[in-house]
Amino acid sequence: MKFLPFLLFSVLFFITAFSSSAQIEEEFDSIADNVLFTKEMNGAVFIHSHGWGIEYRMGFNQTVSKKLIFEADLLEMKDAKQIKSINPFFTNTKSYFYGKLNAVYITRLGAGYQHILNRKPYFGGVELRLLYSGGVSVAFAKPVYLEIIKLDAGSYRYITVTERYDPDSHFPDNIYGRAPFTKGFNRLKPYPGIYAKTGLSIEFGTINQKPKLVEVGAAIDIFAKPVPIMAFKDTDQFFLTLYVCFGLGKRYN
After folding, report:
1. Spatial distance between the Cα atoms of 33 and 122, rounded to a whole number of angstroms
2. Residue 7 belongs to a domain with what CATH number?
3. Per-residue pLDDT tens for 192-249?
């Protein structure tokens, strides 16, 4: 749980930073600022225990304290055991992750509900909101390509060629480094699944129409088939992550 202290520190840091900036914002007319808006949308970036991602969410008031939400996520999923490596026998080599078969990206599309635990005072403050959501998720596995060192039979000189990583023939002494990032996108393989998420959203700021939020929570993605990320280990079918999210939004009617 090494990620937990960093998660708590990040939340405190961003709440302090946003609260300080809110003090210099121009306050809106008090009547307009206290209108009960029925719709909300926000965009956010988040870091989680195995990578990072972006999120877009829309909300529609069902009652004064309950909101129906729709969300879409795009995130990277790393393996906890992947470690950067470099070939020490050649100069100007590039770093890579030894044993990594695929780079995995996950898309989520779902819906849920958000419940207000305490309403923010008209003069500003903090509003706590509990949310839970779920829906479909699809993992896309992009094969890893590497620059491989080979001896050219004609010139008897070492050359590099780009090949898809093969754990049976590629080793630390003949891997020069990673191939360009775009290599392998034409061979994406989808893995359909479902996800569930729960979190605590902390909304603050003095302007009701422009909410600022920090959210902490947990999510689980479950796929119909195991998604291969690393060689030399069992493939994963379940991905449980903790996350912290930082977002800006807009309320309107």
Report:
1. 8
2. 2.40.160.20
3. 999 999 999 999 877 778 889 999 999 999 999 999 999 998 899 999 999 999 999 9
